[in-house]
Design a protein that fits this description.
The complex is a heterodimer of chains A (about 650) and B (about 280).
Chain A: E1 4-15, E2 18-30, E3 35-39, H1 46-54, E4 61-69, E5 72-73, H2 79-85, E6 90-93, H3 107-117, H4 123-136, H5 153-165, E7 171-175, H6 183-198, E8 202-206, H7 210-216, E9 219-224, E10 227-233, H8 244-252, E11 271-278, E12 284-291, E13 327-330, E14 333-336, E15 344-355, E16 358-369, E17 373-378, H9 384-392, E18 399-404, E19 407-408, H10 409-421, E20 424-427, H11 431-434, H12 441-452, H13 458-471, H14 478-481, H15 490-502, E21 508-512, H16 520-537, E22 540-544, H17 548-554, E23 557-562, E24 565-571, H18 572-577, H19 582-592, H20 621-625, E25 631-633, E26 638-640
Chain B: H1 4-10, H2 13-36, H3 66-102, H4 104-119, H5 122-133, H6 137-164, H7 167-174, H8 179-190, H9 192-215, H10 226-235, H11 242-271
Classes of the chains: A alpha/beta (about 650), B mainly alpha (about 280).
Chain lengths: ~650, ~280
């Protein structure tokens, strides 16, 4: 049994007169029988960490901190000492497959090499063991006699794995073990890795394949520019990430589990340089910079402070650029974020609204996390728009509390509505009616600024308007911005409305059926644009739609409403893939066009019970009497308000 | 629709005629004192003199030059029409907006008041006021305006209530727009056609009313006016004066009212939202 304990490990590569900071005070434990996965973008220091465990870093790398194999210190150990543990106790599967094999030796010789080198066995026995190892990888017995260039990528990867496992090491470091493999081979390799875990090996899995990490790893460590941003249980990766970076990584990965269109992370960061600056008082300041495509290294600049991810983060606040951030415990994760992980942007607590005798919205609670798209779906009259308007601040609920960015919204409205209005953008369903036909495009987009009077001068207003129009991919020619609404088509007009909603730089966007009056091709354009905007600006979005197909494509989470009540809410993929509520199942069937299974109920029953009872085939007496409490599936991320949920 | 308005107006015969008439009248008003040659109050000419090169339209029974009287009479009539038209329109717009904006009790009260005013014949009130109090023409115009606003107010109120609930105003509210911003930026421009129509109808009515009152002799006799000229001319209708004394004021009055009516009709056709073509 071997534990690996890594403490405050920092690795710096010296390149020319600058230093590259590859790892910055990383701490982690590798435990027997557990797979720890390291994920992160290229350049985040994943491979450097793996190589450090093997003591394989080049001479120009400076290592600080400690890596302990039980009691044995690896950092600073002598080459002979390291040779004692390499392959026998710690083995590594390197990335880039064939490049790690010697092209002039047969495969079997290379697989047997560690055994011979460590004098574990005689040559004949070594060859026999190597042959067995290769066969256990599902490889052709004659394969060992071939040369590396005669093997396919999958065969090479499996041979390398056989090589790594041949000495039965305690610790296995797998660097991108499945990078170039097809799905079947990947599954086979995954099984071997799981088998190794069950044998009590400590495994460090370095990968950018998030599906693999989620499926076979126990713990996940998210690295960003050499810093640990979050450590989390692997199963939470897609459904409950707490750091904005983890969320963004998950969105960027084409997982089989999510339906949403791929997102990305705005901006870029290639590496961190560390260097000295002589200061005016004679002292020397050692500090680091993040270097990306758009940032060049200049000689005069202040040292970066605060969170490393802050320039690309969608929920960064002023403090994030100033204060130092440390890992902290949140739920069962460790998160390096000043705001304690992804913040709750907007929270509704038991809000309700009645119009006369008609209950438009029964007490409903809902939380929107910063930077997510929440889709509300349901039939007409289900209270979606009422909820949306309450969220946008244009409708006052009869009861309940609204909390926006941690402040009570009702009080905020009373005290200073203008500042709140600037933070919430609203896009209406009918673009032609939502603008005054006496306003030109410029007037329309300028209106929020004109209302807010933020002390902008004419040029600044002009610039903001032009920027907003650019954001929505509209022309900024004077010829266009002086046009009137009736001279534009619906798609362009809806984009003008979106530009109007964005010009005051809101942090939340409420979109009420923004594409229902558009044809599919224009709708696709507008949606793509909205998704891009969401990634670039980190908008939190409440997207109201009746179109399930749409919600599936753009929503991070989805809420299903019926007659003013939330019936089901959860991650889009789960709600759509495995609906927990019979009503959701019915809606999905309806959206698929399976009309024979759908029924439409006309009369409205204003009873205490579940509003779906009259159409539900599972309803029993209790369904008529009381509306159920939510039943949580999957850590509370997925709630179903049903007495008898499916599954 | 607001952009096509100009093009549409330019080809509308009603509008062209109206504008032409207004132009002629404006010239007559501005150049009046110059064209008149004589002082309209100068009574030193031969009474009932026939038209001559000295007196283009002859001389009336009091020895005054008819052309001079006519030119000054037009000025007075138009001034009365403008004062009443503008005041009536402003009162109507304000009351209409107030009713639409506040609704409730205010709206109810003002609308019942307008119903009452519409039911009472304003000519009666004007005759009585003029007879008993002998107010100046300007105050009489204001009194007329104070009774003439209900039509405009009702039209403005109805339209403003529609606009008030429209989506673009809801959007502006969500952006945090104040009441004054919404009224000045969104509602007032939207109601613009109604101002023109309200003004035109009030001015037309006022000019006719002024002529009627002066015809009845309810104004200061020394004040030149078209109505009074008709009144005096009628006394001598047995003489052969109809074409040089009776007809000019009647023709002028008709043209004045026609000018305003033509303009009002053409503007109404173009601007009234109920008549507007769907774009």
């Amino acid at each position: 049994m071997v534990n690996i304990t890594i403490n405050e490990l920092s690795v710096t590569y010296r390149v020319n007169d600058h230093m590259l900071l590859a790892l910055d005070q990383v701490g982690l434990n590798l435990l027997p029988g557990r797979i720890t996965a390291l994920v992160g973008e290229s350049g985040s220091g994943k491979t450097t960490l793996g190589k450090t465990l093997m003591g394989l870093l080049p001479e120009y790398a400076k290592v600080e901190g400690s890596v302990k194999l039980n009691d044995l210190e690896i950092v600073g150990a002598s080459e002979s000492g390291l040779n004692g543990i390499r392959w026998s106790r710690v083995a590594m599967l390197f990335q880039n497959g064939a490049a790690n094999l010697n092209p002039v030796h047969r495969i079997i010789d290379q697989v047997a090499e560690p055994l011979i080198h460590h004098n574990v066995a005689k040559k004949a026995e070594s060859m026999a063991r190597a042959q067995k190892a290769l066969e256990s990888m599902g490889l052709n017995p004659s394969l060992g006699r071939r040369f590396p260039h005669e093997l396919s990528g999958g065969e090479i990867q499996r041979s390398l794995l056989a090589m790594a496992l041949i000495m039965d090491p305690d610790v296995l470091i797998l660097d991108e073990p499945t990078a170039a493999l097809d799905a079947m081979t990947k599954a086979f390799v995954s099984r071997i890795i799981l088998g190794a875990r069950d044998n009590g090996k400590s495994i460090l899995l370095i990968t950018h394949d998030l599906d693999l990490a989620k499926n076979i790893a126990d713990d996940l460590i998210v690295l960003y520019l050499g810093q640990v941003m979050e450590t989390l249980p692997a199963k939470d990766l897609f459904h409950n990430p707490l750091h904005p970076y983890t969320l963004a990584l998950g969105r960027s990965f084409p997982s089989m589990e999510t339906h949403r269109d791929l997102g990305g992370i705005r901006g870029d960061a290639f590496f961190r340089v560390l260097h000295n600056h002589p200061k005016s008082n004679g002292s020397v300041l050692l500090h680091s910079h993040v270097v990306g495509a758009s940032q060049y290294h200049e000689t005069t600049h202040p040292p970066p402070k605060g969170c490393l991810f802050q320039p690309r983060c969608t929920q960064a606040v002023a403090d994030c650029t100033e204060k130092d951030v440390f890992l902290m415990e949140v739920e069962n994760h460790q998160v390096r974020c000043l705001r304690g992980g992804i913040a709750t942007e907007f929270h509704l607590e038991k809000v309700a609204k009645k119009y006369g005798n008609v209950t438009a919205l029964a007490p409903t609670s809902l939380s929107l996390r910063a930077g997510e798209i929440f889709c509300l779906v349901g039939e007409t009259g289900s209270g979606k728009t009422t909820l949306g308007m309450i969220a946008a601040g244009c409708l006052k609920p009869d009861q309940g509390r609204r909390i926006f960015e941690g402040r009570d919204m009702d009080r905020w409205i009373k005290e200073d509505y203008l500042s709140l209005a600037g933070k919430i953008g609203l896009v209406h369903q009918h673009p032609a009616q939502a603008v005054s036909h006496r306003f030109s495009v410029f007037d329309i987009v300028e209106e929020p600024l004109r209302i807010k009077k933020q002390g902008l001068n004419k040029e600044e207003i002009q610039k903001r308007v032009i920027d907003a129009l650019k954001d929505v991919h509209l022309s900024t020619e004077p010829e266009f911005i002086n046009r009137y609404p009736h001279e534009l088509n619906m798609g362009a007009l809806q984009r003008v409305c979106i530009a109007r909603a964005l010009v005051s730089k809101p942090s939340m966007l409420v979109a009420d059926e923004p594409t229902s009056s558009l044809d599919p091709s224009v709708q696709a354009k507008v949606l793509k644009m909205l998704l891009n905007l969401q990634i670039e600006k980190g908008l939190t979005m409440l997207f109201i739609t009746h179109d399930l197909g749409l919600a599936r494509k753009i929503g991070d989470r989805v809420g299903v409403m019926l007659k003013g009540r939330l019936m089901e809410a959860g991650p889009t993929a789960q709600v759509m893939g495995q609906p927990g509520h019979p009503y959701t199942r019915l809606l999905i069937a309806g959206a698929r066009g399976e009309i024979e299974t759908t029924s439409f109920e006309r009369e409205s029953s204003q009873s205490q019970g579940c509003p779906f009872t009259s159409r539900c085939d599972r309803s029993q007496k209790c369904c008529f009497l009381s509306f159920p409490k939510p039943i949580c599936r999957d850590n509370g991320g997925h709630n179903v308000w049903c007495h008898f949920p499916l599954i | 629709m607001h952009l096509n308005a100009r093009k549409k107006l330019a080809t509308d015969p009603w509008f062209i005629t109206g504008v032409a008439l207004v132009l002629i009248i404006t010239i007559l008003i501005i150049a009046g004192p110059r064209l008149a040659v004589h002082d309209p109050h100068d009574m030193s000419f031969q009474p009932l003199d026939h038209p001559s090169s000295q007196h283009r339209l002859g001389v009336n029974d009091g020895g005054m030059d008819i052309l001079a009287e006519l030119l000054f009479g037009i000025r007075n009539t138009v001034a009365f029409g403008l004062v009443t038209g503008i005041t009536g329109m402003v009162i109507g717009v304000i009351i209409g907006l107030v009713c639409a904006w506040f609704g409730g009790l205010t709206d109810n009260f003002l609308m019942r008041l307008s119903d009452i005013l519409m039911a009472v014949p304003s000519i009666m009130i004007l005759i009585l006021t003029a007879a008993f109090f002998r107010p100046s023409p300007a105050s009489l115009g204001l009194i007329l305006a104070a009774m003439a606003w209900p039509g405009t107010a009702k039209a403005i109120r109805a339209q403003a209530m529609v606009i008030k609930n429209s989506l673009h105003i809801q959007a502006a509210r969500q952006m945090g727009a104040s009441g004054s911003y919404i009224i000045t930026r969104h509602m007032m421009p939207e109601l613009f056609p109604l101002y023109l129509i309200g003004f035109a109808s009030k001015a037309r009515m006022a000019m006719f009313m002024e002529a009627s009152l002066s015809f009845l002799g309810l104004f200061d006799p020394s004040r030149k006016s078209l109505g009074m000229m008709i009144n005096y001319a009628l006394k001598y209708y047995y003489l052969d004066i109809w074409w040089n004394w009776l007809m000019p004021p009647i023709l002028c009055l008709t043209l004045l009212i026609m000018a305003v009516t033509f303009l009002a009709v053409s503007l109404e056709k173009v601007f009234d939202p109920r008549l507007k073509e769907v774009w």
